[in-house]
Amino acid sequence: MIAEILATLACGIFAGAAIYVNLVEQPARLSCGIAAAIVEWRPSYRRGAVMQGSLAVIGTALALVSWWITRDSAWMIGGLLVFAVVPFTLIVIFPTNKKLQSNELDVTSAEAERLLVVWNKLHAVRSALSLLAFLIFLLALTHQR
User: How far apart (Å, rounded) are the C-alpha atoms in residues 57 and 70?
Assistant: First the structure.
């Protein structure tokens, strides 16, 4: 039962942080102007990537251990959903991240603003995947015997 609780905790923290970024942090950044938003986004992203990457890997590993022990497919499904944020980030979001991190980007340009808006939409996918995994984990916990 400990692995299941810890998987749920890791996934819940990931989902909460991801949703917070979409609903609170990114809109607050944008309200400060594009140049300030880019300047703040860069170190925030680096720090967030370490935290969220770790939580995704830990949550996935614990979910798979939970599935192995219980044979409850909910842990496998939730684990795969939370893991999906990793390849999604590396394949889909990374090109936008790279452009936002580039010293070549004019931080006052319409392109910079467009990239921040696109990034928030892409990040919302991570929020949705992790929230769905978290809800699956919660349901699996409530159905434990």
Answer: 20
Cα 72 to Cα 8, 24, 34: the distances in Å are 14, 35, 47
Does the reported pTM lie above 0.85? yes
**Can you tell me whether residue 45 is helix, strand or coil?**
helix
How many whole angstroms separate alpha carbon 68 and alpha carbon 70?
6
Q: Read off the pLDDT of residues 90-121 as tens digits, 9 standing for 90 and up.
A: 999 999 999 999 999 999 999 999 999 999 99
Give the number of other Cβ atoms within 10 Å of residue 23's Cβ: 13
DSSP one-letter code for 25: I
DSSP state of 32: T
The conformation of residue 107, written as its DSSP 8-state character, comes to: T
CB count within 10 Å of CB 95 equals: 12
Tokens at residue 70, please?
């219980």
What are the sequence ranges of the domains in the chain? 2-142
Q: Which residue in the block uniquely carries the two structure tokens 């996934």?
A: 11
